[in-house]
Amino acid sequence: MDLIAFLIDFILHVDKHLETFVLGYGTWVYALLFLIIFVETGVVVMPFLPGDSLLFVVGAMCGLGLMSYPLSLGLLVAAAVLGNQSNYTIGRFFGPKVFQWEQSRFFNKQAFGVAHAFYEKYGGITIVAARFMPFLRTFAPFVAGVAQMTRSKFAFYDVTGGVLWVGSIVTAGYFFGSVPWVKLHLDKIIWAMILVPGLIVLWGAWKSRRKSGQGAGAQG
To answer: How many Cβ atoms sit within 10 Å of the Cβ of residue 133?
Structure first.
């Protein structure tokens, strides 16, 4: 329970925790950030880490001169790309076996199903679009591996999505993170970055399920 409470507090107050770490450990913060982004995108059982809000706060800290903007961009793009490559490799290795897994503490079968349906409908562009959607960005490369998407095609979408995701959010934080209104309402912005994409995913899943239900009813 203590670990869960810490993770929740870290996600909701990532700006304070990150600033404390920078002041206490200096350049080691880059290793920590690389690890968080790599794990969030590269390990299918870790979809809850604070990717979007973390990137925004990193950009804000770069804007304040506490961190290096080009170094942060380079390392975090590398972490995002390598994380997806790891996730894709895991999916490709396990293949169809994952469809036999039951709901468990470490594998959310329902979330996997949403990502799979999204991938089936939109193809390779899912890898890019899912970067901006919590949970989906963790499952999309895994599904691509399971679906045996070619490595070269996946790598193209992986790099494109990684650059767009990291580059846009870190840069937004760099330019807007020090704005007084943004600083005052940063906690609400973090909540919005967590909840809004999640609600969009849920709405899309509901709409897709409803459409499937109507189609099945019409056939019946």
So the answer is: 21
pTM of the model: 0.71
Predicted confidence (pLDDT) per residue in 94-124, tens digit: 765 655 555 555 455 666 666 666 666 666 7
> So what's the pLDDT on residue 114?
64
CA–CA dist 17, 171 (Å, integer): 20
Please provide the DSSP assignment of 109-176 as one string. HHHHHHHHHHHHHHTTHHHHHGGGSTTHHHHHHHHHHHTT--HHHHHHHHHHHHHHHHHHHHHHHHHH
User: pLDDT class for 163, splitting at 50, 70, 90?
Assistant: very high
Enumerate the domain spans of the chain: 2-207
Task: Give residue for tokens 């009813």.
Answer: 217
